[in-house]
């Protein structure tokens, strides 16, 4: 199970970074979303993995609970990352509509184009 | 009066002039004056204690972990300076009332002045060097405002910038020096540092600390080679010059050297650095001053010279020299402030302060003439005025000081400096007031009104009084201040009197005076020679230097930030991976302490679909719609795995966020190209792929290593598990953490969410108000549209589901404290319920039924959360302490109430508002004329009525 989670985090991170390195805004947004998943799962997993042990207190008998703290942090992180995605989408959309161009690079003068252009 | 109050009064008072200026200039001036007077009286109340030799303390631990405490203390030295700052401040406030013209914003002036005054008082009363640094920087900032007060003058702005650059960079060096000093002494409290002379001087860090601190002091006190900012700061109004450059700001450096004298002075390093700098500055300032035609420039350079004199005395490191330094600080403040104000009066009345256009004013301005002459004679060191006394003491000390084995260097150079200083004082008198009356003054010179000459007259009164009866008038003050400078040790023998007999000092003095008169007689030819000599212009050098730095930083910035965002991202990722690898190499990885859990079939299936979807996204990301669908798969799997891995709250949150995110992205995609073109060469893609794979391996490996080991430190989660029910009254620990244990975080997060939504709203407004609007209105869809924009089935289904969905939201909300759910999830569900109406029935239809603006919902959510938190105050508890209890109604289950639920309501509202505001803003891009007349269902019996009444059932 640990290997599955860890490899999923790795794959999501790699895919996210690859998309962030693209030159148009939409793939970058997709990449950000993938990285968000990766980061959230990563943070959640720092509480270690457990099945069938939700941190809901049982009044009637002693049972094991998983670590609740990373869950609380990740819960707000998920909601905040929605806010962040929305802002980025808005910026990308505004930039596209204003300049009819969705490249992420700043428009550069010919002599400063650099090796990546 | 408490020292806190004395230091705080000017800051508090700074508010009033700016506000009261509407009530007139007199109101503003008297508010400033009263504040200063109050602080001055408060200071004077401490006279008995200070003159007994006690130190008054007032302390509060501010940030004890950093060693930063708001400790103040008042001893003789602090008293002397505070009295000068507040006393001369009062005179300046009076003077400025009449000096500033009707067009000058006087309220601003007094506010700045009081800010500056407060910062200065703070410096001289601080008992903690970190606190002192704070005030030190404040003086740099407030003096910037004061020097640049005449914003319309380019010289004013340049002078202010230069002063800020020089003094603030010195201040930076001083911060480092002070930190080292505090490190050596083991405390940042001055009272402790001053007891640790032996330890500090023995430390190998003594020299670096000394140099850094002196950099701060020298820049502030305009010592060579940093002297150049002071003359340029003369572009300020004269009251500012008189205040900053006679009694306060430039004296701050001297104060610091005097304050730290007990621990820093007495070493050869101190002597050679400080005394030599002082000597050079003194000579240089006096020589340049003689040849300046601008009255204020003349005074500025002579101030530089006198500051050098005092610095040199402090540099000698002997006790008697310290006494002389203190005495000269007092004397210089009195005569120099008077001279600056005189120069201001001349400028104000005669219309110019160019010496070449002045002369003969003694007939026209007798009062000003008397004041100016007495002050200038004191500066020249003519008996029986006070300048003579301290100058004698200085010459006496200089005559006995050996510099690098030579008995002659210091006496000779000091005499030369005294000679030039006398000459420029005589020139001030002779070329401004004496000589024949002229008929080409730009103004109509006459004595100013009483308010303007009162201040300088009072100071000149002190000049004469101290001169005649120095032991009585200034004796006790000099004694207490000097004994504070030398660290409370026994004062050496000295006597403040005019006649000491035929001492070497007297001969030097006589020589300087005669030489000064000779120079004055020869001034004309000398000036021509001076003008012909090549001189380095400090301003040009300074500007060349700042320009060079600007260009350097510009080229560095532009070299690194060339506008290619992908490059930044690549550099950042590579760098992060590199330092992580470095850390991995340097650290040790313990053996795994946990066993691997065997996954069942379900997790393997989930993993498989996640991996396939992710790889497909990468492969097919050019088809944007397809990748959106696939990213939904990823989100679903993540959400399911949260559920599988004992995190039901996360699963619920993730799946609802997933829904709104996809809607958001679909909305955006509606306006954007549906395909991503191929732009990068294969090589670049391979490079990017390599970077990503390495980063992915790193992230995966890190979490795998973490998962295979137990916690390295005891976890705090056990506390939450143990106290969730007892302390928070809920069994859903995650929710209790959110609304109770870490409620402050949550409070911050809903505010962030609200701000994000507002940013989106604001951006929408900005874009829609630009020329983009026209394009949007005339847009033709790039994909075929659905035949029916509002399918009947969907409209009916969503309307039926609306109350059900809201019911679910309410249910999730209420059970959140004990079972999975809570404000965040309920908010998302409710938002989705409303978004469905927008989607099915159309934007116009939904907007018509919207009761409250979404901004208000966000705001009310934040306010409810804040009010709940503040409610705890009324029970004497800290912000956001929750209370709860149980109610038992006979037929019902035990029923819990908790203030946390109210807080959760705030969260709920903020989430609903933020999500809806974000999506609604985006949808507004789609609005086109005619769209609002389309109705979701063609058959709507209520519509006809609705058009008339504006509401719909």
UniProtKB/TrEMBL annotation, chain A:
Topology class, membrane: Multi-pass membrane protein
Keyword Heme: no
Keyword Glycoprotein: no
Record-level GO cellular component terms: plasma membrane
Coiled coil: none
Main location: membrane
Family, similarity comment: Belongs to the CPA3 antiporters (TC 2.A.63) subunit C family.
Record-linked NCBIfam families: PRK09094.1
Descriptive protein name: Transporter
Origin species: Leisingera methylohalidivorans DSM 14336
């Amino acid at each position: 199970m640990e290997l599955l989670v860890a490899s999923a985090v790795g794959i999501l991170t790699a895919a996210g970074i690859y998309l962030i390195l693209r030159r148009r805004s939409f793939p970058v947004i997709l990449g950000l979303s993938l990285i968000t998943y990766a980061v959230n799962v990563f943070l959640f997993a720092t509480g270690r993995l457990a099945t069938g042990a939700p941190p809901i207190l049982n009044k009637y008998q002693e049972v094991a609970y998983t670590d609740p703290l990373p869950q609380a942090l990740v819960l707000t992180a998920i909601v905040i990352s929605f806010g962040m995605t929305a802002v980025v989408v808005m910026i990308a959309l505004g930039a596209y509509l204003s300049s009819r161009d969705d490249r992420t690079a700043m428009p550069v003068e010919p002599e400063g184009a650099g090796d990546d252009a | 009066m408490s020292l806190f109050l004395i230091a705080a009064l000017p800051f508090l008072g700074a508010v009033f002039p700016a506000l009261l200026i509407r009530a007139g200039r007199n109101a503003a001036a008297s508010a400033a004056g009263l504040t200063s007077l109050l602080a001055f009286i408060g200071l004077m109340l401490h006279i008995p204690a200070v003159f007994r030799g006690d130190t008054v303390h007032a302390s509060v631990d501010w940030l004890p972990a950093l060693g930063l405490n708001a400790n103040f203390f008042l001893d003789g030295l602090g008293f002397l300076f505070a009295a000068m700052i507040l006393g001369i401040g009062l005179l300046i406030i009076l003077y400025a009332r009449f000096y500033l013209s009707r067009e000058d914003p006087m309220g601003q002036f007094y506010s700045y002045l009081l800010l500056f005054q407060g910062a200065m008082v703070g410096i001289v009363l601080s008992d903690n060097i970190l606190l002192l640094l704070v005030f030190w920087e404040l003086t740099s900032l407030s003096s910037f405002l004061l020097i640049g007060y005449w914003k319309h003058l380019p010289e004013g702005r340049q002078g202010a910038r230069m002063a800020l650059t020089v003094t603030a960079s010195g201040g930076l060096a001083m911060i480092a020096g002070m930190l080292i000093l505090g490190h050596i002494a083991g405390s940042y409290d001055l009272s402790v540092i001053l007891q640790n002379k032996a330890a500090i001087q023995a430390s190998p860090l003594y020299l670096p600390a000394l140099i850094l601190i002196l950099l701060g002091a020298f820049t502030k006190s305009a010592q060579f080679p940093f002297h150049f900012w002071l003359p340029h700061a003369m572009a300020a109004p004269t009251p500012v010059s008189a205040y900053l450059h006679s009694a306060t700001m430039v004296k701050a450096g001297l104060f610091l050297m005097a304050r730290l004298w007990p621990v820093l002075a007495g070493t050869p390093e101190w002597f050679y650095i400080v005394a030599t700098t002082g000597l050079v500055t003194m000579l240089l300032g006096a020589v340049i001053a003689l040849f300046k035609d601008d009255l204020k420039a003349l005074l500025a350079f002579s101030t530089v010279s006198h500051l050098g004199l005092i610095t040199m005395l402090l540099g000698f490191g002997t006790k008697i020299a310290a006494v002389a330094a203190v005495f000269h600080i007092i004397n210089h403040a009195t005569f120099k402030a008077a001279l600056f104000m005189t120069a201001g009066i001349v400028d104000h009345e005669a219309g110019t302060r160019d010496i070449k256009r002045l002369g003969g004013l003694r007939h026209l301005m007798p009062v000003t003439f008397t004041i100016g002459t007495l002050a200038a004679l004191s500066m020249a060191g003519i008996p029986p005025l006070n300048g003579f006394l301290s100058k004698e003491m200085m010459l006496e000390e200089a005559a006995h000081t050996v510099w690098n084995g030579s008995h002659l260097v210091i006496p000779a150079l000091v005499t030369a400096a005294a000679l030039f200083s006398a000459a420029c004082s005589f020139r001030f008198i002779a070329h401004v007031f004496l000589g024949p009356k002229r008929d080409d003054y730009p103004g109509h010179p006459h004595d100013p009104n009483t308010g303007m000459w009162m201040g300088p007259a009072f100071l000149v009164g002190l000049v004469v009084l101290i001169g005649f009866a120095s032991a009585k008038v200034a004796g006790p003050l000099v004694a207490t201040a000097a004994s504070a400078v030398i660290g409370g040790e026994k004062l050496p023998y000295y006597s403040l009197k005019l006649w000491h007999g035929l001492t070497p000092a007297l001969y030097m003095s006589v020589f300087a005076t005669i030489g000064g008169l000779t120079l004055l007689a020869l001034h004309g030819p000398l000036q021509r020679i001076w003008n012909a000599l090549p001189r380095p212009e400090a301003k040009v050098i300074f500007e060349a230097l700042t320009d060079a730095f600007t260009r350097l930083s510009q080229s560095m910035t532009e070299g690194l930030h060339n506008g290619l965002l992908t490059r930044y991202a690549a550099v950042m990722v590579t760098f992060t991976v590199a330092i992580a690898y470095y850390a991995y190499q340097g650290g040790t990885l313990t053996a795994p302490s946990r066993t691997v859990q065997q996954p069942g079939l379900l997790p393997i299936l989930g993993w498989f679909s996640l991996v396939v979807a992710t790889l497909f996204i990468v492969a097919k990301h050019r088809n944007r719609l397809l990748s959106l669908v696939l990213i939904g798969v990823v989100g679903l799997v993540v959400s399911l795995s949260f559920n599988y891995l004992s995190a039901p709250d996360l699963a619920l949150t993730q799946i609802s966020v997933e829904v709104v995110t996809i809607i958001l992205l679909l909305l955006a995609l509606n306006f954007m190209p549906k395909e991503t073109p191929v732009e990068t060469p294969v090589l670049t893609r391979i490079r990017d792929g390599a970077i990503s794979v390495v980063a992915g391996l790193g992230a995966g490996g890190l979490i795998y290593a973490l998962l295979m080991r137990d916690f390295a430190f005891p976890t705090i989660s056990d506390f939450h598990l143990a106290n969730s029910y007892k302390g928070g009254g809920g069994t859903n620990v995650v929710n209790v953490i959110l609304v109770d244990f870490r409620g402050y975080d949550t409070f911050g997060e809903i505010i962030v969410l609200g701000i994000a939504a507002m940013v989106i709203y604001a951006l929408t407004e900005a874009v829609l108000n630009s020329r983009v609007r026209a394009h949007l209105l005339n847009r033709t869809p790039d994909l075929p549209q659905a035949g029916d924009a509002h399918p009947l089935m969907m409209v009916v289904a969503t309307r039926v589901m609306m109350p059900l969905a809201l019911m679910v939201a309410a249910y999730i909300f209420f059970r959140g404290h004990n079972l999975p759910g809570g404000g965040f999830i309920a908010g998302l569900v409710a938002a989705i319920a409303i978004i469905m109406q927008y989607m099915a029935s159309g934007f116009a239809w939904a907007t018509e039924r919207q009761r409250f603006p979404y901004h208000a919902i966000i705001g009310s959510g934040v306010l409810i959360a804040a009010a709940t938190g503040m409610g705890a105050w009324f029970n004497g508890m800290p912000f956001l302490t929750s209370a709860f209890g149980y109610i038992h109604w006979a037929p019902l289950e035990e029923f819990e109430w908790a203030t946390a639920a109210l807080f959760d309501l705030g969260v709920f509202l903020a989430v609903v508002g933020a999500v809806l505001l974000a999506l609604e803003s985006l949808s507004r891009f789609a609005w086109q004329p005619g769209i609002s007349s389309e109705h979701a269902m063609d058959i709507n019996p209520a519509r006809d009525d609705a058009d008339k009444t504006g509401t719909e059932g």
